[in-house]
């Protein structure tokens, strides 16, 4: 896959929670068709990065552009409509709606509407269309997050810890699913602790430590990088 | 909102035909009941108020049942509607039915002005609306505005009195509010509101302009209360500001809606009919016990039927179906 055109550009991003810099001057760039792993110990700021780019938190400093379009500090629905979407570390389905209706909400507010059954098929939830949320397993709920994201025809999806708690079979299933998205031109930022899973899914990684970017490059190089090793061995590991 | 003819939401909710019939029944049954009821029970004013309360309870249903925002100050729109319609009738001789619509528009306008209240959440929102409505009351009833609003002396609409038409308008308003709820419940708009109520950030990442969608629900609820206040003023013919800016209006509408079950079409209607009837029966025969009995009824309900009659009904019907399934 050729990754040339710049898609998402994050420059000097800083997010502060009452004086605490959860993100400290982070810069990274994502190219079209790329799958980037976002790794780092617990509390290093991975989810905060996703939340900041996706408009939940306003950054204290920094600049975010999508295909040159400034989206810094924009409202979440504007960011979603611009083509950035996400899943949640703890899935956040609409609990009073069925699986189908969950995806319908995104579909209603999308510019280019895709068929809902088609989307459910892409995330292997076609058989659960009429299920209430309580009937879904954790893995299915995470895929429902993905389905809702897909319905908005995104250019980038942030995937926050999709693999945690999945069985090996489910892991393979999800890895194939993500590979499929990439083939359809969706770039991915994959937040993950499971290195084995990352290896299957991403072509490069960005390492965060205490809110700072400390490494950017291939997964192999990351694993042999002295600073990365120190951060991972020193900090809490694989929650 | 984009056009969505191809989006099929009927998967869960049944056939398209059923989607049109059930709202029609929900609106028609009260119309017929009120039309017949007035011949069996001669207290037309009481029935008018009951219809007005159905509208208010449905308004609460739309804003609270579908967005989770509970406005204690809901009565403010009622009072604004009563005054706006009363004043256009008195000052410009506007026909009452048209004045009722103007009262609804006035309610919605005030709703738009109060939009910043949505920055508040939970109890703060509830109390914020209460404060706003008290403020409006203070302004309208102020003696220095007597030349415009007649200040503390209220309005006298006796010249427009026409009991039959006012009663008919109250019934039409109740039916309209029921149809509004049905629309909200079965439309894409309603689906969006439910999504927001479940998780507003998730909804925004689903592309939903959350404040705007909430605003629409708020406007509908405010317009309904504005029209309800208008019909109230017209049918009562003489009212003081404290009668139309009465927090008890909000309390009753909220209790009626909760008792019947919010988020449903029938709940608030049935809740109003039952509780308003009890309210009047106890209030007339044993006024000294009224508060006690009414209070006890509410406590029992909250304890044993927290999702209202509608929730209780669902519970019973599922029980029956499971028992039947076992016996088959
Ligand atoms: N809303 C918030 N308010 C205050 N502090 C926060 C908030 N969100 C995150 N933090 C703090 O910011 C730091 C980074 O948290 P974040 O959730 O981004 O870490 P993470 O890398 O996603 O960790 P994990 O691997 O455990 O998911 C943590 O110290 C956390 O306590
Ligand atoms: Mg996290």
TrEMBL record, chain A:
EC number(s) recorded for this UniProt protein: 3.6.3.-
Cellular component aspect of the GO annotation: plasma membrane
Positions in coiled-coil regions: none
Main EC class the enzyme belongs to: hydrolase
Pfam families xref list: ABC_tran
Signal sequence region: none
Protein keywords: ATP-binding, Hydrolase, Nucleotide-binding, Transport
Domain ABC transporter: 8-235
Gene Ontology MF: a single term: ATP hydrolysis activity
Keyword Hydrolase: yes
Protein name per the record: Lipopolysaccharide export system ATP-binding protein LptB
Lineage summary: Bacteria, Bacillati, Actinomycetota, Acidimicrobiia, Acidimicrobiales
Gene that this sequence comes from: lptB2
UniProtKB/TrEMBL annotation, chain B:
Membrane topology: Multi-pass membrane protein
Entry annotated with the keyword Transmembrane helix: yes
Nucleus is among the record's keywords: no
GO cellular component: plasma membrane
Keywords assigned: Cell membrane, Membrane, Transmembrane, Transmembrane helix
Parts of the chain that traverse the membrane: 20-40, 72-90, 96-115, 122-140, 160-184, 215-236, 248-277, 289-309
Subcellular location(s) per record: Cell membrane
GO MF annotation terms: branched-chain amino acid transmembrane transporter activity
Source superkingdom: Bacteria
Pfam families hit by this protein: BPD_transp_2 (PF02653)
Name this protein carries in UniProt: Leucine/isoleucine/valine transporter permease subunit
